[in-house]
Every structure is written in structure tokens, then in C-alpha cells.
Design brief:
With about 260 residues, the protein is α/β, with parallel strands linked by helices. The protein has one domain: 3-Layer(aba) Sandwich (Rossmann fold). Helix content is about 35%, strand content about 15%. It has a 7-stranded parallel sheet. A 3-stranded antiparallel sheet has the order 4-8-7. α1 packs across α2. The protein is globular. It binds fructose -6-phosphate. The site of fructose -6-phosphate has 14 residues, from loops.
Amino acid sequence: MEIALARNAEDAAAQVADVILARLKAKPDLVLGLATGSTPIGVYRRLRDAHARGEVSFARVRTFNLDEYLDLPADHPQSYRTFMREHLFQGLDLPPENVHFPPTEGRDLLRRCEEYEARIVECGGIDVQLLGIGRNGHIGFNEPTSSLASRTRVKTLTERTLEDNARFYGPGERPPVLAVTMGIGTILDAREVLLQAIGPKKAQAVRSMVEGPVSSFFPASALQLHRRVTAYLDPEAASLLTMIAYYRRTRAQDEELRRAGRL
Ligand code: F6R
């Protein structure tokens, strides 16, 4: 796993956005895997700004969101479809038919989850997958003990995730306890993974992801099995890493080799 130590949250967002924009310029029909939550908001703002400046078009991009709550209507203020519309899609020239979310309404969910996976394959696979990380190590809504080979399916959310989500719901509102999420196997199939972690609450999770054992009890550790993952961390999220000087040196040296056209 490559560790990118950013100066702060803004710098991390700028670095992630720059990678996505570079990939998009190289491949205008890029297939993007997208995350929600507070972490990617700065990245999405930068993508919208780049589009507004006329630097990039999303007209041929295909997107697949990681997850969505079961039975939460698309227009609910807390649905991930609302989140994506507000933070990214409404500012872009992305055709609505190119946007995909896991199936969360109606019957026959398992078959439709398989269709979601098949649609990803039909589009050529995910080129760049954006990820955040939960305090309990979840990626997408793959909670602890998720199979490392899992595919898109219904997941029961843990108490910890429910606590973390409670802040978005008013008193008397019942936050959803089930979600449909891409599996860890689905995420590992992406060609490149960009994970962002910001703030002191993520420090322990980052340490377990980067330096801990690979375990379904800490799903993000499965990213150690992927060939091309970069974790973009602010100083607080990186604060518990034990080999931080080595990561800084490695990144600087790799960048030098890239600039020289040798990597
Ligand atoms: C969101 C998702 C989650 C979040 C994670 C971190 O689509 O899949 O795994 O990335 O819960 O959330 P934030 O960014 O709000 O700390």
C-alpha cells in the first residue's frame, strides 16, 4: 500500500482529485467507483470545479456507488443518491443513465445485486475506486467479519456504524439498519483504489489497515492484498503509524522516479 502523507484535509482532497482528473483525461470513458460520507466532499468539489472551468467532461464516464441504505427512498435527505446529486452529479455533464447504485428497493435483491456486478463487468470493470474508512475498519458497508471474497449484497450495520450515522438523523427518526454494499471482492477487483482518511478518529483504523494483520475482522486490511492502493492521510489520521518516516521517504523517492519517467 502506498501512503501519501498530506499536509491537511484540503491537501489530501486536492491530491485525490488530481489523480482522478489525470485518469479521466487519459481515459474519457473512465469507470469510477464512488463513496459517500464526509471524507470525499472536498474531492467532489474539486471535480465539479474542474468541470466548471471546462478542463474535463464526464459525458462518457460511468459511475458505480459503493453502497446505499435499504428502503430509504431516493429523494430522502440522507439517501446516498441525494448525497451524490448534491455533492457531485448536479454540477456535471454526467448522463443519468451512466450513474449506478446498488439495488435497495423491491424484491429479488440478490439477483439484482448480481446484475449490479454484471453491469460493472459490462462497463469494463472499475478503473478507479474511491474509498473512505469507518472507525471499525469498514470499507463500503463491509462491516467486521465480512467475507474477504464478498460481492454486492445486503449487510446488517454494526452498532458502531449506527452510532456514527445517528448524527444525520433527527430525534425520533430511525436510521436504517440495513444497507446494500459492494463486497470486499468487488472492491479488490478495481484497477486502482484511492482511500482517504482524515482526522484523529481514524488514526487507529488507519494503523490497523496499513500495519495490522489481514483479517475479515478489520475489512480495510484486505486492501493489503490489492496491487495498487494509495492511502491519502492527514497528519492526525497518520499519527499512529509506526513507520511514518519510511512512508514519507518511499513516496518522495517514487515521485522522483515518476517525474524522471522511470516508473
Ligand atoms: C460511504 C462508505 C463508508 C464511508 C465510511 C467513512 O459510501 O462506504 O465506508 O466511507 O463510513 O465515512 P466518513 O467519510 O463520513 O467518515
